Amino acid sequence: MSNAKSKQAKPKTGLARCMELASDRKGLVFLAAVLSSLAAIASFIPYIAVYFMIRSIIGVFPNLDQLDMGMVMNYGWLALAGIVANILLYFLAIFSSHMAAFGTLYELKVLFADHITKIPLGYHLTIGSGRLRKIMDENIESVEGFIAHQFPDFVASITAPIVMVIILLAVDWRFGLASLVGIILAFVAEFIGFGSGEMKENMGKYQKALEEMNNASVEYVRGMSVVKAFNQTASSFKKLKEAITGYTEWVLKFSLGWQNCMPAFTTIINNVYLILVPVGILIGSRTDDFAGFAMTFIFYLLFVPAISGVLNKIMYISESFMQINGNVARMDEILNIPEMPETAHPKKPAGDDVVFNNVSFSYTGDNSEKALENVSFSAKQGQITAIVGPSGGGKSTIANLISRFWDVSSGSITIGGIDVRDMAEDDLMHHVSFVFQDIFLFKQSILDNIRMGNPSASEEQVIAAAKAASSSPNCPTGITRWSAPKASISLAVSASGLLLRGLLSRTRLSSCWMRQRRSVTRRMNT
Asked: Residue 364, exposed/middle/buried by CB under 10 A (0-12, 13-18, 19+)?
């Protein structure tokens, strides 16, 4: 029963998830919360001190010679002590929260980096390096920012309104109620903005569009030299343009959603005195103790800026909560990807025959959306086996499954009579080389790119491998030139993009050849 409940339990998000991540440093987090609360309380001490100073002065007016200057100075020192206490306590709160946040950030980044090395490699292709980079650099970083800054402010935003309401009602309940009317109106305006489901939905879609634009930008910049060389700027820019258009649509919807509620909120919190003035006129016209009324009225007029500061902080925290909810959800989306299972007792293949036995596979896990269904064939060692079919027919999927970029949904794939799931990862990678349809070369010479298959190979061995993998008996000139993509492009500056892809493919194929692997999987267009 407990297991069933745990499975049905709603995953933690936002604040709860951040506190869970920082659970190893909960002492520092708790200390930051306490200190932040005390700082919020101390921030009201100057207002109370000023109130008593005003009362002392008005109490003897106009006979100021009867004013107890010693008492007034004490109130002044009390106000200064409140300011110093507020600054010092808030500094200590932020210091404690930063200590907790930095440690949490380090462990979270190590956990994330370790996790993405263990998930199926196919996810790296579908998610994209740009999105993973954004999650690592921005979404995870936001967890540190939330724990370090927003959490102490969140605690203060809870403590400060409580203290503020107590003070407002304690000095004069009539002025207090008038002030609360302004506060309630401001909260209504804030709720219309932050509390609506449409605004939360727009925030989520805005963040997703930002990730897609970031991913498309990274891919475009990386391939810019190839795009320019073959004058493919229009077609290559299509994906980036679509991403930018999608981002523009949602950022405008999200931003314009504030065009009414934000001005209303700001106007109300900065003009609470407009509610106090008519109330003050009404009370003053009916009071017998004008000195006492004036003292109280002046205090509330001086206290209005504190109301504005407290509500502004609440608005700021509400926006941070919306952002951290989305950021944590995107981080957990990756962390929740199951790791590729590794066998505890790996087996070694006896040969290199590749056999598919009733293999079915679905990228979504939905049996109604299968990319492959009951596929069976064998690729014999020492022979060339070509998988030919239309675009979307499953050729890439077959290649991905052999290299165990994904695990099959049903059936089995064997190499040398051993299921690829029963092979150690290093052993599988030793038997299979994979040349991608989209070729990525490191920013080094072609020589260095090929040598990655065997770092100890000599230059003569590299050239021999390049000739063996190429359809031309001549080794490309500039093989030792730095920046492989540019060296390759210079050989085919007037050729088509397909020729360049073939040259880059042969570079990677040469690297596979250097490793002397017996099974090479190559994905080609047909």
From this structure: exposed
Query: Rounded distance, CA 132 to CA 113, Å?
Result: 10
> Any bridge partners for residue 377, and if so which?
356
- Cα 172–chain centre separation: 47
Q: What are the tokens at 196?
A: 């609506």
- Give 415: exposed, middle or buried? Use CB within 10 Å, 0-12, 13-18, 19+: buried
Sign for the CA dihedral angle at 281, 283, 287, 292 comes to negative
Helix, strand, or coil here: 410?
A: strand
By the 10 Å C-beta count (0-12 exposed, 13-18 middle, 19+ buried), 33 is classed as buried
Q: What are phi and psi of 86, to 5 degrees?
A: -60, -45
Structure token pair of residue 267: 């106007």
Greatest distance between any 2 Cα atoms in the chain = 112
- At which residue do the structure tokens 């995953």 appear? 11
- Residues whose CB falls within 8 Å of the CB of residue 178, separated by 6 or more in sequence, listed in order: 275, 276, 279
pLDDT of amino acid 306: 79
Model confidence at 39: pLDDT above 90: yes
| DSSP per-residue codes, 326-382 | HHHHHHHHHHTSPPPP--SS----SS--EEEEEEEE-SSS-TTS-SEEEEEEEE-TT
For 154-204, the pLDDT digits (tens) are: 898 889 888 888 888 888 888 888 888 888 888 787 777 665 566 666 766
Cα–Cα distance for residue pair 163/161, rounded to 1 Å? 5
Q: Please answer whether residues 186 and 265 qualify as being in contact, where contact means their C-beta atoms are separated by less than 8 angstroms.
A: yes
Q: Contacts from 47-51 at CB under 8 Å and sequence distance 24+?
A: 47/167, 47/299, 47/302, 47/303, 47/306, 48/78, 48/82, 48/167, 49/75, 49/76, 49/78, 49/79, 49/82, 50/75, 50/79, 50/299, 50/302, 51/171, 51/295, 51/299
What does the pLDDT look like over 74-87, one tens digit per residue? 999 999 999 999 99
Indicate the SS3 state at residue 270. coil
- Taking CA atoms, 108 is separated from 113, 128, 135, in Å, by 8, 20, 12
Query: How many CA atoms, within 13 angstroms, populate the side-chain half-sphere of residue 243?
Result: 20
**Helix 151-171 / helix 14-21 crossing angle, nearest 10 deg:** 120
Return the structure tokens found at 421.
């799931």
Q: How far apart are CA 270 and CA 35, in angstroms?
A: 28
Amino acid at 508: R
Query: 483, 487, 486: which is closest to 475 by C-alpha?
Result: 487
Assessment of whether the complete model's pTM goes beyond 0.85:
no
CA distances 398 to 233, 377, 395, 427, Å, are: 32, 11, 5, 19
Q: List the helix and strand counts (H, then E) for the chain.
A: 22, 6
